[in-house]
Amino acid sequence: MTEPLLKPRKKNPVERTRLATRPPGARSRTALGLTRAAAEGRFELQVCADCGSVQYPPREVCGYCLSEHLAWKPVDNRGELIALSTLRHSNDLYFRERLPWRVGTVKMTAGPVVVAHIHEDCAAPEGTGVPVRLTLKLDRSGQAVLHALPAKDTPNMNDAAQMRESTCDPKFRRVLVTDGKSAMGLATARAMLDAGAATIFLGDPSSWKTVAAFDKLAADPRVQVVELDVTDTDSVDRVAASIGGKVEILVNTASHLRDGGILGRKDVILARDAMEVNVLGLMRLAQAFGPGMCFRAADGSNHAVAWVNVLSIHALAALPSRGAWSASMAAALSASQTLRAELRGAGVRVVNVFPGPIEEDWEQLTPPPKLAPAAVAKAIVKGLQDGIEDLYVGDIAEEIRERLRDNHKAVERELGQ
Amino acid sequence: MSTPVLTQFLNELLNGRLKMVDLTQTLSPEFPTIVLPPEFGQAWPFRIEEISRYDERGPAWYWNNFSMSEHTGTHFDAPAHWISGKDLPDNTVDSMPVENFIAAACVIDVSKEAAENADFLLTIDYVKAWEEKHGRIPERSWVLLRTDWSKRATPKEYLNMAEDGAHSPGPDAEVVPWLIRERNVHGFGTESVGTDAGQAHHLNPPYPCHYFMHGNNRYGLQCLTNLDQLPPQGALIFAAPLKIRNGSGSPLRVLALTPSA
Amino acid sequence: MPVTVPYARYSSRSAHWWLGRALGELIRGAGLAKTDVDGVCVSSFTLGPDTAVGLMQHLGMSPRWLDHIPMGGASGVVALRRAARAVQAGDAEVIACIAGDTNQVDSFRNTVSQFSRFAQDAVYPYGAGGPNASFALLTDYYMRHYGATREDFGKLCVAQRDNALNNPHALMKKPLTLQQYMDARPITDPIHLFDCVMPCAGAEGYLVMTEDRARALQLPFVRIRSTIERHNAFPDDPIQFRGGWAMDKDALYAHAGTAPEDIDFLETYDDYPVINMMQFEDLGFCAKGEASAFVRQHRFTIDGDFPFNTSGGQLSVGQAGAAGGYLGLVQALRQLTGTAAATQVAKARLGMVSGFGMINYDRGLCSGAAILERGASA
Q1: Which domains does chain A have, with CATH numbers?
Q2: Which listed residue, A60, A143, C29, C352, has the most CB atoms within 10 A of its CB?
Q3: SS3 helix, strand, coil % of chain B, rounded to 5?
Q4: CB contact under 8 A, C128 and A28
Q5: Position B261 confidence tier, pLDDT thresholds 50, 70, 90
Q6: Containing domain of residue B73, as a range?
Q7: Residue C149: is it exposed, middle or buried by C-beta count within 10 angstroms (0-12/13-18/19+)?
Q8: What CATH code is carried by the domain that includes residue C55?
């Protein structure tokens, strides 16, 4: 049975910090279909359109009928553990540091045989195999790997060391919420505390403004207020110099949202403000906090693990009535992709959150459905616990995502009506 | 060839009989900027980014790019800044007569009252009482309101925002037209972010200092500091805004000259 | 005479040096001119960026038949099949079959990382950094399903070590007891230290020609009685517990007109002890699942009742990359020409060589076997 995660001890300051290593990250292009599924928390394998066979490992033509019509589809994730081994030695730096490590052979109900990480709560097979569930998760190289879990959830299942290597659990971690004064920021901070975060660094971009809910949250002993204006390089650098070595999850809630397309105005001031906060703010934060997070990406059980950008589904498809803001969302998405590549070496995961409209002041006139900030925050926490990288929240976001996959031109026309 | 007056002036300055006081706040990103209702356009706070600092971006030099609004930090308001002054002649920083950059200053100290009441308003009676003690306000003088607001240590205290807006001292709606009509003042200056009081939107007319001063082609100075180093009368102010095309105002260095003792 | 270029744990030389030496000794030992060798078959993992083609220019050879066998431990048997058919068909008269690899400190890591697409996508991300995990899983399954014990595996390893002590080429020079085997540190449960081969540098080689040509050159020779080969056998087995030999062993014996009890010695491909057990079963020496009992009932030393891996096998000699696929075949050639020196099995007349290799994803894909007969001794 998995032991519950213990609160980490304080770090010995004169000991060398263990640096991040990564599991093997090379994959064929076709195998990246697994990564796409894992990034969104889905379980998909290739299925032959002609004979229906399920394929694994990923391949170019069906291993049964040689058809080239292979499509990625959700499949039954159940299987039987038929062989089990525990690594006590590895030539691979990453695994050497994490021994012993269980791997096994699982025969899937859907057909293929897979090698998978085997959760410590899965019993060893005896005469017959042991039922397990498979799940696809991103490992520290940002690539998909299969984990076999026991047939039913067990207590503290997600605390297993092997699981924590593929997830970004806030438990016992210190979280920076860059704008802790907005509704979204406050909800994020609360959700992180509920998920067991050790400390919330609550960013205050407008110390001159009194917000009662902020003051109330700031009184919590686990919360530490930091004055942080993401449009001010000095401010960002100052905060990073002070707490940069302690941030294990960074959630960028700093956001500038205003109505207004492009033609309706005679100036670019709102657009510049949106870019300044939503894009350049992200870059400043990355420059200031990124290196420290990378340095601590393998430092203890509460090592630095995730960078979360709260974007919008409209980063993927502009909403013309809010065109300037949409442009900044798209720019922020692009920047986050670069950031993802730059942080990947250390195994720090960049998580992009794509909610639909959130119930807050500047969305007042948007018709429902709108997401309560607490609901988005809860989804962020669950996404981190599950190790998701691209998180779509709410019906509108899911719907637009599906419509984009189907016909992006239709989305463009329909949003532009 | 310099005239004797200028020579004497320079000598007095250099030998310390004249003192130069810097009434300017340092421009830094932390310095608060006025915050308007969020639906309106906002003034950019001061932001600065290094271009290079004797490094690979520029090996032998150090320099910065900065951005801000015309009304950030210690700044000058030109008459064009307000609707009441929009059609007056020479009403922008680049068109106003350069002689207007130099004027005498009367410093009215209401720091005690302001400490007790953040919404303290300067009235005609208060000014008259001040004149009893310190003499009549000369023509073409700046009237500077010393509140010690510049000593407030944090942006929160400086902007002093409550649920109903900012609370900071300023002139009431009667004293401003009186100063213009009866004393022909040059302009009004304060230590807070606005020449008007924080709650001036409730006065009639709203923002009377902006309304009347700029409506009469007079000027404003904001975010001043070190007013406590000036005598009530006798200081000379140098306040030359940047020559911005059609500028409504600009950040500037405000310098005061005053006898030393 | 087959050739072994003595193995070394590490070598700063390239594979070309090892292969070139093997070819040189083969030619000199046979009293041939270099130009007499008109066919070449090469197996190597570390020859890159060259293949057999680049090697020909490197070695100044102009063969009219050239093959490159990338089948790992099955390379020896498969090269024999290819070369024999070529000589039979008249495509070449004298074929040199050589296998060799260098071993530098990062050779293993580099070889493994380029090994196969399925391994890259579906095995290495799971931690072993090599084939150990896949074989551990096979071993786990086999032990649980058939009741094999570590002592059974140990008995084979100890016997192979005893044999190796008679082989001056073996890199392992110290005796091994069953207790030492059992106490060895775990690598990947249930595999322990002495279940794993030691990668090294080395080369092996032999010549293939017609019997008439061998007599004319007055060379000791061995006859091929039968051979088999199979790739990706039993793909629907959820895990490998049998190899391709099970599909074709009947043909192997029928073609040679012999039976398992006629075999005087067996050289298997022994990358892990469990694979030896599978070969005992799949080559017909016992029934499937009975290898443990078989092991307990026999003695596998050179002088035992079932001489097995008489040079010591890879587990005691070392695995010189692709040359590991030739080790058993070269040893069989020595046994059957009476040139096995201190490892000679008395009266060896008929021998079997088995090859296995290329663990591509979760199982070894290549298998092969040959029954060889004494022709003319030295």
Answers
A1: 32-164 (2.40.50.840), 174-415 (3.40.50.720)
A2: C352
A3: 25, 30, 45
A4: no
A5: low
A6: 4-259
A7: middle
A8: 3.40.47.10
Residues B223-242 as b or e (16 or more Cβ within 10 Å = b): bbbbbeebebbbbbbebbbe
In total, how many domains does chain B have? 1
ipTM exceeds 0.85, yes or no: yes
* Span B164-217, pLDDT tens digits: 999 999 999 999 999 999 999 999 999 999 999 999 999 999 999 999 999 999
Residue type, C252: L
Tell me whether residue C378 is in a domain.
Answer: no
Q: What is the pLDDT of residues C339-377, one digit of tens each?
A: 999 999 999 999 999 999 998 889 999 999 999 999 987
Inter-chain CB proximity C188 and A89 less than 8 Å: yes
Which residues does A311 contact at the CB level (< 8 Å), separation at least 6? A329, A332, A333, A336, A352, A353, A354
Q: What is the identity of the amino acid at A296?
A: R
CB atoms within 10 A of CB B124: 16
Q: How far is B161 from chain A (nearest CA, A)?
A: 6
What Å distances lie between residue C40 and C17, C208, C214, C325, C327, CA to CA?
16, 10, 17, 16, 18
The three-class DSSP label of residue B208 is helix
Domain span at C92:
3-105+202-215
Residue C110 within any structural domain of the chain: no
* Judgement on whether residues C36 and C62 belong to the same structural domain of the protein: yes
Residues of A in contact with B35 (CB under 8 A): 208-209
Q: For residue C247, what is the enclosing H or E element?
A: helix C245-256
Confidence band of B66 (pLDDT split at 50, 70, 90): very high
Mutate to test the interface with B, among A204, A207, A208, A226 (most CBs of B within 10 A): A208
The one-letter amino acid at B131? E
Q: Which of A357, A340, A415 is nearest to A143 (CA)?
A: A340
